[in-house]
Amino acid sequence: MSRKVCIIGGATTPFDYGPTGFESIEGGAAECIKETQQDISGFSLRDLDLMIYSHFSVHFSHQLAPEWIIHDHLGLVGLPHFRVENGGNTGGSALYAAALAVMSGHHDVVGIVGWETMDSVSQSQGSEFIAMASDIRYELMVGGIYPIYYAAMANKWMKENHVTEEDVATIAVKNKNNAMDNPKAQWYRNDHRYITVDDVMNSRLISYPIKKYDCCLMSRGVAFLLVCSEEYAKKINPDHYVTVEGMGLSSCTIRAGDRLNNPGWSERYGPGYPGMTEFAACRNSAEQAYKMAGITDPLKDIDFGEIHDAFSTSEAQIYKALGLADENTIAKFIRDERTSINGDIPMNPGGGLLGYGHPVGATGLMSTIECYYQLAGMIPQKHLSKKTEVPDPECGIVNSHAGTGTSISNFILRRP
Amino acid sequence: MTVTVVMKTKKEKFADPPNFTEKKDYRPSDVRETGFAFVGHEISEDRTTMNQFLHYDQLYTIRHGWNSKFFIGLLDGKIMGTRCPKCGDSWVPVRTHCWNLDCNLQKTEWIEMPLTAKVHTWTVAGWSGRSSLKRLPIVLVYANIGTSKVAMANELHGLNPWDVEFGMPLKIVFKPKQQRVGAVTDFHFEPADFWKPSPMNPEKQRIKDLVMPVYEWVKTLK
After folding, report:
1. Which is it for the CA torsion A393, A398, A399, A400, positive or negative?
2. Chain B residue nearest residue A127, CA to CA
3. CA distances from A263 to A336, A391, B101, B150 (A)
4. Are B77 and B174 in contact (CB under 8 A)?
């Protein structure tokens, strides 16, 4: 019988790009831990028995094994540590690893530090660095960067699902405007304005149908998350802990074009799925997480989510992969604003990648932390107002997503 | 007890390295592999914050190994694919072992694909990575080449970006032989000769409106 896994705290640095955000990475990690200690007065660094580091690209950090610098800086010599790297799903995968460590009974208190420093090179060079996670032999040099791959997938998906540019623009508006209530969000700190669907529609072309404001932000940022056994949670933070009730991790092809006719998916879901449009690894990992958490109707059983909105289009695709809507209902699902803060299943009240930012290794942790804050009733103290507080939530979903949907994890978090 | 120690006079070789006889070097003359070098810094007026600039040029060797026939094929103006002799699935990009678990990593055989393809999906890019910016706007399509079960990404040339369509027939066009480097950039897609664009419609107009400023922006790039 595996043990229950709990989350008892966490914090991020402000997410930024360029002119602000000049703490060092190890300094940022230290500040995240200190903020967590302000929330949980009994938590000491001495309680940790494993550290997991969540970091995507050493191209950005121009340093191999940069986690060694952070670990050393935190004074944790002697404590076991390793780094997890799994593209955009690095944060989710690090949480998966931490949960396995606690479940196994081998570790009780696991800290995760995640970060990325994407402003160490120009935006266009940064895009190319990230695109090195696509198959460089076949895709990188033919004009390929991730927004372009995603646009090619979304273009077909939108047509097949009767979803318009304006529909997905509402998702960009929702998340960036949610971020205006979050002082650590990059959109709040840099662009700092409320936007409309027209603003999205009129923003510059990135790759049709994706425009600039449909895209997430390249970021510099650090996050810390504290994962532990139920026994430690009850001892150290009895009033503000949440449980990881379900989790799933799944995989798909590196090249999106290889999803056509793929026998691995055909034998699970029948021929024709996922094509180049659906996120099969999201569906698959959600099914694992739902099964583990006893969720039969996600729309009814889940109150809100923090999901991987690298693009407004991908948030829409994720709704469908999570089983919140199908081909016939997805357009109406978006138009009815079901995922706005006043809807029945708010998504990305913290701002998401579109608003909070996307420092890759920190991102999945940021999503988890925001989900934790909502469930632990901490939004009034962490956000600027109660405007982005989900009313009395019991159950949230965290989604972390990599490549062109190449690795995806889902977690179900609940109030105990 | 006697122990016999056999001393090998010659080191045993497990495999012979390939004998590389055809060598080409088309590296731009301004690329210098200097290793790491600090090439500058900046300090804030209040002297609390410093940025340092690190430069790094490095030549990588991409060893194509068992995939080499595909890339050598490009030099010859051919699209080489692979096919599983057990289940018959075929692919470009190639797989040297079958993806079907029932075939249990069956080694595949090489086949030459026809120089025709069909668009599976498409996008019109107005922004890209640093090395592609000056080629914008780029029509990127995923297309099935010949009998391939999977779609391959490449640029589509020879039409107005807003005229690209799902399912449109394509031909594969190679660069002149002397310009080829054995990479996927040696070829691109063009509309099949018999294909004609459909009349202007609201979506095409929308894409045209989004794309026109991109042409202007590219002119401003140095």
Report:
1. positive
2. B129
3. 36, 43, 8, 12
4. yes
Contact of B130 with chain A, judged by CB distance below 8 Å, is answered with yes
Q: What is the pLDDT of residue A288?
A: 98
A chain contacts of residue B129, beta-carbon cutoff 8 Å: 124-125, 127-128, 131, 140, 143-145
Using the beta-carbon criterion (under 8 Å), do B135 and A143 form an inter-chain contact? yes
Q: Is residue A266 part of a domain?
A: no
DSSP A304-356: EEE---SBHHHHHHHHHHTTS--TTTHHHHHHTTTTSTTSSS-B-TT-HHHHT
> A206 and B137 in contact by Cβ < 8 A?
no
C-alpha closest to that of A186 among A211, A155, A215: A215
Contact pairs from chain A to chain B, CB under 8 Å: 161
CATH code of A34's domain: 3.40.47.10
Q: What is the three-class DSSP state of A40?
A: coil
Residues of A in contact with B71 (CB under 8 A): 137
Report yes or no: B154 at the A interface, CB cutoff 8 Å: yes
Domain that holds residue A28: 5-120+219-229
User: How far, in Å, are B16, B17, B38, B65, B96 from residue B13 at the CA level?
Assistant: 7, 10, 42, 19, 26
Distance, in Å, from the CA atom of A257 to the CA atom of A153, rounded to the nearest integer, reads 9
pLDDT tens digits for range B140-155: 999 999 999 999 999 9
Instruction: Look at B151 and A142 and tell me if their CB atoms are within 8 Å.
Output: no
Residue A333 in domain: no
Residue B28 falls inside a structural domain: no
Nearest by CB: B138 against A138, A143, A209: A143
Largest pairwise CA distance in chain A: 56
User: Phi first, then psi: what are they for B122, rounded to 5°?
Assistant: -150, 165
Domain assignment of residue B184, given as a range: 65-219
Residue contact B140–A148, C-beta within 8 A:
yes
- Structurally, chain B folds into a number of domains equal to 1
Q: Is residue A104 part of a domain?
A: yes
Do the Cβ atoms of A206 and B185 come within 8 Å? no
CB contact under 8 A, B213 and A143: no
What is the number of helices (H) and of strands (E) in chain A? 18, 11
Question: Does B168 fall in a domain?
Answer: yes
A392 three-state secondary structure: coil
ipTM of this complex prediction, to 2 decimal places: 0.87
Q: To which residue do tokens 């970021």 refer? A: A219
How confident is the model over A212-266, as pLDDT tens digits? 999 998 899 999 999 999 999 999 999 999 999 999 999 999 999 999 999 999 9
Q: Please state, in angstroms and rounded to a whole number, the distance separating the CA atoms of residues B135 and B126.
A: 10
* Minimum Cα–Cα distance from A266: chain B residue: B100
Task: Classify residue B43: in a domain, yes or no.
Answer: no
